[in-house]
């Protein structure tokens, strides 16, 4: 598993890094002060924004989000990080 996150202090805290390492999670670095380079901002959110509107409850919205995320193929995720 490769995890990409911003450089928030809670994400880079020693306890967090140690935990992820113990679970064999590889961390993908994120450029400091480059929020505009977050794959979520330019790849994920624009593609799902119109699909997750006007739900009757939080539970329904969360389930829709999970479904949409599961439909993104591994090759699409890889392409996102290569560009």
For the structure shown, list the relevant keywords:
83 residues, mainly alpha, 2 domains, two-stranded parallel ribbon, 5 helices, 2 strands, 54% helix, 7% strand, Histone-lysine N-methyltransferase SETMAR, nucleic acid binding, RNaseH_sf
What's this, in brief?
With 83 residues, the protein is mostly helical. Helices cover 54% and strands 7% of the residues.
Can you give a write-up of this model?
The chain has helices at residues 9-12, 14-22, 39-48, 58-70, 74-82, and strands spanning 2-4, 26-28. The longest helix has 13 residues, at 58-70. The model has no long low-confidence stretch (mean pLDDT 76). The chain has 83 residues and is mainly alpha-helical. It folds into two domains: 1-33, no CATH class; 38-82, no CATH class. The two termini are 20 Å apart. The chain is globular, with a radius of gyration of 15 Å. Strands 1-2 form a two-stranded parallel ribbon.
Layout: helices, strands, pairs:
Layout: E1 2-4, H1 9-12, H2 14-22, E2 26-28, H3 39-48, H4 58-70, H5 74-82
Parallel strand pairs: 1-2
Give the count of helical stretches: 5
Q: State the share of residues found in helices, binned by percent.
A: 40-55%
* Strand residues, percent: 5-15%
Mean of residue pLDDT values: 76
Shape: globular
Using only C-alpha atoms, the radius of gyration works out to 15 Å
Output the helix-strand order: EHHEHHH
Strand order of the largest sheet: 1-2
Terminal residue distance: 20 Å
**Spans with pLDDT under 50 lasting ≥5 residues?**
none
Major sheet attributes: 2 strands, parallel
User: Structural class of the helix and strand makeup?
Assistant: mainly alpha
